[in-house]
Design goal:
By secondary structure, the chain is mainly α. The protein is built from 3 helices and no strands. The protein has helices at residues 5-41, 44-64, 69-84. The N and C termini lie far apart (57 Å). The model has no long low-confidence stretch (mean pLDDT 95).
Length: 87
Amino acid sequence: MPNIKSAKKRVITNKKKSVGNNTVETSRKTAIKKFEKLVKAGDKENAKVALNVAIQRIDKSAKVGLIHANKAARLKSRLTKSLNTME
């Protein structure tokens, strides 16, 4: 446990930020998994909707700094490619 006042404040703010970061990251991963499940099942219409949600969550992660902008672009590109290659 920190003894210095500013270090105590950092413990509190880090805890608050980690809760928010975990929420954003979990929702991104869940959205991607739902999309991939729909692609695997061959449901193109619902996959399009899920892709939009996944892209929104990826953009949010990049905006708040959880992932790099290039990683966000790579993820979006791969997901879109997997939708376009569906039959």
